[in-house]
Amino acid sequence: MPRRTPRFTLDRLRTPGRFPGFLKTASVCALIAGLLSPLSQVAAAAEVTAANDYCGGQCSDILPPGENGNATLAQILLNQAFGTQPEHAEDQLGPYANLAKGYPTLTNATINTFFNDASFGVASDQVASTLSPAGRSDVTIVRDKKTGVPHITGTTRYGTEFGAGYAAAQDRLWLMDVFRHVGRGQLTAFAGGDPSNQGLEQQFWRNAPYTEADLQAQIDNAVAGNGTRGQQALADANAYLAGVNAYIDASDSGRYFPGEYVLTGHKDSITNAGTIDHFKITDLVALASVIGALFGSGGGGEVNNAVSLLAAQEKYGVEQGTQVWEAFRERNDPEAVLTVHDGQSFPYATKPASPQGAALPDTGSVTSEPLIYDATGTGGDATATATSATATATALSSARRGMSNALVVSGQATASGHPIAVFGPQTGYFAPQLLMLQEIQGPGISARGASFAGLSMYVELGRGQDYAWSATTSGQDIIDTYAVELCQDDYHYLFHGTCTAMDVVEQKNAWKPTTADGTAAGSYTMRVYRTKYGPVEYRATVGGKKVAYTTLRSSFMHEADSIIGFQMLNDPDYVKSPQTFQSAVQHINYTFNWFYADSTHTAYYNSGDNPVRASGVDAEFPVWAQSAYEWRSWVPATNTAAYTPASAHPNSIDQDYYVSWNNKQAKDYSTASWGDGSVHRGNLLEDRVKKLVAAGGVTRASLTKAMADAALSDLRAEDVLPDLLKVINSSTVTDSTAAAAVTKLQTWLTAGGRRTETSAGSKTYADADAIRILDAWWPLLVKAEFEPGLGTGLYTAFTANLPIDEAPSAAHGPTGAHAGSSFQYGWWSYVDKDIRAVLGESVQGALPQKYCGSGTVSSCRDILISTLKTAAGKTAAQVYPGDTLCAAGNQWCADSIVQRTLGGIKHGNIGWQNRPTFQQVVEFTSHR
């Protein structure tokens, strides 16, 4: 039976989300009575012997909300009506949330109060169940009592992967089905026409508009190009799919399949009519395309860059305007926090001395390429139009939001002499979670950790026998924009001098109301025009010539290639050292920062297929689609090219420490997104870890505390507010309103500048007024500081390149508000550099002029005090206007994290933390 909600700090959702109109208790009870009878899976307990484990009980991990992401119809209805939860659906939310108030007193002995033991195997008295899936004798799935994580042990390679697929479907079948439809651009037809579904499928399909033949070709090419390992990957994938499909058949006949299939009209709860489609190998590529686009595809934004450059040149003239643009772009800011901080230089995508081939649009000529055609009903109403515009802007932006962090310390600075790592991916918060935990032990595989649902034939982030690894999104530029000259009409273009027709790829979707989604009927066609230089994203004129701007991504048509790197990471016979770890992740073509720790060594490597660009091409801007400006050795038919060698990627072994929070990787290594300047959220880690390393004696607890403290810190308060107050306090503040605000801000700053509750579960911030004031003040002060000097046109253009703020309560990215990840993108570096310059302090990489008050302290002070007074006068209801979850003025709720529902089970919101979703704390004590 479903258990009741445990006692921890949760705020129950106030609205029924996607299941309106059927929460009447009487009708729910009637349905439940008839739904509790289907057969459930029963398995006997058994003892499992752990594989070789060199962590000595010092590996821990956590992944909220819980391992169990599947729920029957009865369980969904119970959850919606009474808030009860299926077993292991929510049991990780409490420990995860409680670290926010528990970390100050954390010790090594109490780490597993907030994390779970990540040792291999399950103690005999902790085995909850053992299953031989589909009656196979070559694999068992053991689940532990505490978390329900599957521990898969196989005696054959096929059986091991079969078990991994079966376990994945047990825990995430509905989610896997959702995301294979997202990747294929078919979500609305599958799950309903809710605007969020429309936006999700449009955002991803625009960047990966594949046909079935395209998906299959990617598999064929990945296998053919990787020899024995390619063949093994194909065999593993097929065994994995067999396991997934075996669970589909078993759950269908046993009637314990996910209840969402009934609620969305795919199955009948009475007759069991309807089907759950088997998974096929091309579904894995569709799934991979979504994950790659969301987390591992740096680049883009060249057209937006061109628009802001033109605005700067229009205001200041070409030479000075370019200088202003470069200063705000901060390609290689000398004050930026670096992951590789030992002075090594890794030049990539730097500004060429003599740019060639630029194809900047004529002013005012740029229009984005439509994606939606022939819309009817709710596919074409005002809400749908707004949703489509947002999805387009997100898809075309160079800003990849909400990612991950890592803190890794060499054994030279630790109490034990062994390296320590606290790291994990920040993949957002969903119910069920995109990631799932598992342990896999079989021939050639020995690992425990997290994998994306539906791609879990290998552990993607986790630990091996004597090493652990993790990743953060890196964002270096592997996407270029080409201006293809049109000929004949708008759908033909010149390719190497020949007028060539664009390919047309379409996906037609239609939907009607269901129990799960009451959105009225509607339909539309998504249509993408593809060229050899990639999909068309914009139309414009360049020097009066009509062009289409296309985006070419090095991982386009190569979504399956990274499987080889993950296979290697799971192979204990391959990864035995930091060097072999680096060799493994070199086979991952997505843009990630990879971190490694064993009992003696640490390592770092930046992955991705970085194309070798033609001499003189500036990666920041569109270039002409001509042979002279193409990637070196580019083959259009396969979208392969020459790539920079591994030695040119930022990499390091045994640096004193590494930190990463999507910051700049190394000196001279440019990333596609803006904002790598003097103030970045990476500084929150850098400052704390650097101090720990200098003191020595670092422990798992002290490094975890550094992460947790940074997770509650307001970047603006910690790194910018002191200088703002320095300007304001340069003379006595006589205005009573401003003086009171300054006192509150100073008191908060002295207390640490954290957004933290008065006590665990209070749902009220300490220093709430100061937090409200800064949240209200920041956008006002940025506008007042910079718009007069830049002018409205250029200021607006720059805000399109880099938003001014990303406070916890902001709505942003694919998950909207309540997403946890904060302070990744904003104007804090600009404010910092400008205010320091006004104060007469030394600034490396300074802006070309002083903006605040035209550079005088007194005038700048007047601007700051005026905007501060306005901010202080704003009520909480004005600063936090409320939404479907939170009442206006509820500051804690506005910041809070929500596990965004992708299925029928809902969870309460938890207090804000800016930390990885899946997280490991590791310290290996020995090595093979």
Q: What fraction, in percent, of the residue positions are helical?
A: 25-40%
Tell me the distance between the termini. 44 Å
Strand numbers in spatial order across the main sheet: 3-4-5-12-13-14-15-23-24-26
Number of strands: 30
**C-alpha-based Rg, rounded:** 27 Å
Proportion in β-strands: 15-25%
Shape: globular
Could you report the average pLDDT, rounded to the nearest whole number? 92
Number of helices: 27
Structural class: alpha+beta
Low-confidence stretches: 1-49
Major sheet: 10 strands, mixed
Protein traits:
globular; 10-stranded mixed β-sheet; 27 helices; disordered N terminus; alpha+beta; 928 residues
Describe the overall structure.
- The chain has 928 residues and is of the alpha+beta class.
- The protein is 34% helix and 17% strand.
- A ten-stranded mixed β-sheet has the order 3-4-5-12-13-14-15-23-24-26, covered by helices on one side. Strands 7, 8, 16, 17, 18, 19, 20, 21, 22 and 25 form a ten-stranded mixed β-sheet that branches.
- α8 crosses α11 and α12 packs across α13.
- The relative contact order is 0.15.
- The N terminus is likely disordered.
Task: Please outline the helices and strands.
Elements: H1 25-35, E1 59-62, H2 73-82, H3 93-102, H4 111-114, E2 116-117, E3 127-131, E4 139-144, E5 150-154, H5 157-183, H6 187-191, H7 195-207, H8 212-224, H9 227-254, H10 260-263, H11 281-295, H12 302-316, H13 318-329, E6 345-348, E7 367-368, E8 372-377, H14 382-396, E9 405-409, E10 420-424, E11 430-431, E12 435-442, E13 445-452, E14 461-463, E15 467-473, E16 479-487, E17 489-495, E18 498-501, E19 503-511, E20 522-531, E21 534-542, E22 545-553, H15 563-569, H16 578-585, E23 592-598, E24 602-607, E25 623-624, E26 651-653, E27 657-660, E28 667-669, H17 682-695, H18 700-711, H19 715-719, H20 721-728, H21 736-750, H22 768-790, H23 792-801, H24 828-838, H25 857-872, H26 876-879, H27 891-895, E29 900-901, E30 919-922
Parallel strand pairs: 5-12, 6-28, 11-29, 16-25
Antiparallel strand pairs: 1-2, 1-30, 3-4, 4-5, 7-21, 8-20, 9-10, 9-27, 10-30, 12-13, 13-14, 14-15, 15-23, 16-17, 16-22, 17-18, 19-20, 20-21, 21-22, 23-24, 24-26
